[in-house]
Amino acid sequence: MRTALMVSGAWMAAAALLPAAALEIRNDFGSIRVEAVGDPDLQVAASVGARPARDDEMVIERKSERIVITAKPSDVSAPMDFTVRLPLGFDLEAQTKSGEISIVGMVHRARLYTDTGLLFLKIPWAGARLQLDADQKPAKVSLPSGRRFLDSTIDISGGKTLWRLRDNLAESAIVYGSYRVRAGNPKQIVLEDFDPPPDWPLKFHWEASKALETILSPASRPRRLAPTESLPESETGAGGEALFRSDVRMVNLVLAVNDRSGNPVTDLEAKDFTVVEDGEPQQVAFAGSDEAPFNLAVLLDLSGSTRPDRAPMQAAVEGFIRLAGPNDRVAVYALAGGMFHVVSRLTSDRSKLLEAVQRLPEVSGASPLYDAITLAYAEELHQRPGERNALIVISDGIDNQVSHQEAPSSVKFKRLVQAGEEMNAIIYPIFLLSGQRFGRDWSEKARKRMEELAAASGGRVFPAGSIGDLAPVFPQVEAELRSVYSVAYYPKNQDFDGAWRKVDVQVNRSDAILRARPGYYAR
Questions:
Q1: Please, is 140 exposed, middle or buried when counting C-beta atoms within 10 Å of its C-beta (0-12, 13-18, 19+)?
Q2: Which neighbouring-strand residues pair with 86?
Q3: Residue 44 parent element (H or E)
Q4: Interval 452-510: pLDDT, tens
Q5: Coil, helix or strand for 452?
Q6: What pTM value is reported for the model?
Q7: Range of the domain at 246
Q8: DSSP string for 231-280
């Protein structure tokens, strides 16, 4: 990945222009404290006693894709300490003698060396591996509650022994971090669990179950505010969204309208739609198409089952970014290593998006696709009711629930379809036929499931031979997006008791074909 390195407040131009994926710090004169962050820029600050370190007190070298920083303080009587903000995906090697080594967050791979220094690791241990070897077991060892670690004495040559502390995860467990530690006689070892904040750009796939329950929970459902009259007047907010003034519930439908030739119909108004809920006609309050900004989220399946090269994957995402209009917002997410990655959140900044695509994670890992779809919707689209939202999923559709391999999605497919019926977004799977190499049965089952999920949300499947064969798909998707409307109404039945309500939407054009979700749960 390309990164910018900031050391002691000064930008290092040579470092900023070269790719880097690892940082090595050698400091025999003090501590190394590391915080893993979602920012792509690597920042290193150093101090000697109470003053900032000078440039000549650090030797900065480039070794292939590794940045190596060595401490060379002019005054060895004062400690020289490093504070690092390390981008996710970076590897780390840190070496001290008696200084503290601390890491907070999620580091991809870490190798740590200390003689007598304290070790503090605040890590999401549910997805991290640890092997810590020390000449002697420290007097103080603090472990996170509820987590099991194994300690043992290992015989080595010459009659010597090592004390070893390691994780107790299954061999098949999905992990993000790997920590190898070699110590002499450390003062203390402290392991704590790290609870990533909600906006953290990296999530374990099993977090999807909780996210799905949040999506389906009435308490978390975004609400519109409206006066108590049956059809309130609205005001317009800064972003063009409708704002209302009291507590009548609104239902938002995202749907697509094409003519019989498949061309988008873009000139419809609220009066052109008829909505019937549980047999009761409703009055449409709002219908918007071209004039309303679009929120387009692209989920890229980089799991092992797709086996693509990163270059065509990047080209595919860039193609969908270019489909968006100047006021539309695009987000890019990825499933890789069995984990959900936020590559870029919703933004209309094209240069920022294209730059983010260069940082796509490597192709690897299991295929908990249903979890990734859930997390992709929950990340931002769930919080944007009443807007034109779409989720494009580029995948062969083969979740490990289909292939019966390890690490299947925690979200069951039927539950995901139920959520699709309630989502404020249309789902468009770009189904890669290359998945057929795993067997026709798997591929057919995967395709049927993607078709069922798309239909539940009002979308449809676009087949493609492979990730490098999307040229025919782009104009189809572009036309489809232009056909998407946001239609809103205030149900006459304001008793939101959780029951399913069938919704039938019609449009008063004889040549129009409309696709919409079949109903919703009144939560």
A1: exposed
A2: 36
A3: strand 42-48
A4: 999 999 899 999 988 888 888 999 898 888 888 889 999 999 988 888 899 999 999 88
A5: helix
A6: 0.84
A7: 235-289+490-521
A8: S---EE-TTS-EE-SS----EEEEEEEEETTS-B-----GGGEEEEETTE
The 10s digit of each residue's pLDDT in 257-308 is 989 888 888 889 999 999 999 999 999 998 887 667 889 999 999 886 555 5
Query: 273 and 135 in one domain?
Result: no
Q: Which two tokens stand for residue 229?
A: 């009259």
Tokens standing for residue 174? 């999905």
- φ, ψ of residue 194 in degrees (nearest 5): -100, 125
pLDDT in tens, 40-96: 889 999 999 999 999 899 999 988 889 999 999 998 999 999 999 999 889 999 999
The answer as to whether 209 is a domain residue is no
Give helix 413-420 / helix 369-379 axis angle, nearest 10°.
30
Residue 68 lies in a domain: yes
Cα-only R_g, the chain: 27
Which residue shows structure tokens 């959520």? 419
87 and 158 co-located in one domain = yes
> Which amino acid does the sequence have at 76?
V
β-pair partners for 45: 83
Q: Of all helices (H) and strands (E), which one includes residue 419?
A: helix 413-420
List Cβ neighbours of 309 (8 Å cut-off, separation of 6 or more). Answer: 363
* 205 and 410 Cβ atoms separated by less than 8 Å: yes
Helix and strand element counts for the chain (H, E): 9, 36
Helix (H) or strand (E) holding 208: helix 208-216
Report the half-sphere exposure of 75 (CA within 13 A, side-chain side): 12
Beta bridge partners of 37: 87
Q: Rounded CA gap, 226 and 231, in Å? A: 9
DSSP-assigned states of every residue in 273-340: EEEEETTEEE-EEEEESTTS-EEEEEEEE-STTT---HHHHHHHHHHHHHHS-TT-EEEEEEEETTEE
Regarding whether 163 and 311 lie in a shared domain, the answer is no
| Structure-token pair, residue 180 | 């190898």
